[in-house]
Amino acid sequence: MAKILLVEDHEEIWDFLSRRLKRRGYDVILAHDGEAGVQQARAGRPDVILLDMNLPVLDGWSAARALKSGTDTQRIPIIALTAHAMSGDRDKAIQAGCDDYHPKPVDFSKLLSQISAALGEAAPAA
């Protein structure tokens, strides 16, 4: 079972996503700020990280840079989750170290496809 670290500070979003991902068979670890997300990634070694970019304590861009600079976490795929959907926001997330980008509101079936791609799997049936 793949392990996903969900770094999200809005309760409605982490509750919704964690429940739906668990129903799909994923093991979900939660962190509610960027610093806790970096610590959880180092301790829990998830297979994929879903990273909100607007986080307290340490923002998502800084967390992504910290994770990609660590030898123990640099190969973990990061999918940016963000309400920033303006021109250039995707590039900003990729430049910070994210491997993929998913604008909010979350399109769950598209997110599942992105997770599967990050894991190197065939896309799941919706």
Provide an overview of this structure.
The protein is an alpha/beta fold and 126 residues long. Strands 2-1-3-4-5 form a five-stranded parallel sheet, with helices on both faces. Helices cover 43% and strands 19% of the residues. The chain has a domain at 52-70 and 77-120: 3-Layer(aba) Sandwich (Rossmann fold), CATH 3.40.50. The chain has five helices and five strands, in the order βαβαβαβαβα. Helix 2 (34-44) packs parallel to helix 3 (60-69). The mean pLDDT is 92.
What's the short version?
The chain has 126 residues and is an alpha/beta fold. The protein has helices at 11-23, 34-44, 60-69, 89-96, 108-119; strands at residues 3-7, 27-31, 48-52, 78-82, 100-103.
Summarize the helices and strands and which ones pair or pack.
Layout: E1 3-7, H1 11-23, E2 27-31, H2 34-44, E3 48-52, H3 60-69, E4 78-82, H4 89-96, E5 100-103, H5 108-119
Parallel strand pairs: 1-2, 1-3, 3-4, 4-5
Helix pairs in contact: 2-3
* Sequence stretches where pLDDT stays below 50 over 5 or more residues: none
CATH architecture of the domain at 52-70 and 77-120: 3-Layer(aba) Sandwich
User: What is the fold-level CATH name, i.e. the topology of the domain at 52-70 and 77-120?
Assistant: Rossmann fold
User: Count of DSSP helices?
Assistant: 5
- Strand percentage lies at 15-25%
Largest sheet strand order = 2-1-3-4-5
Major sheet summary line: 5 strands, parallel
Question: Element order, helices and strands?
Answer: EHEHEHEHEH
The CATH homologous superfamily of the domain at 52-70 and 77-120 is called Response regulator
Protein name: Response regulator
Domain Response regulatory: 3-119
Organism: Methylobacterium soli
Keywords: Phosphoprotein, Two-component regulatory system
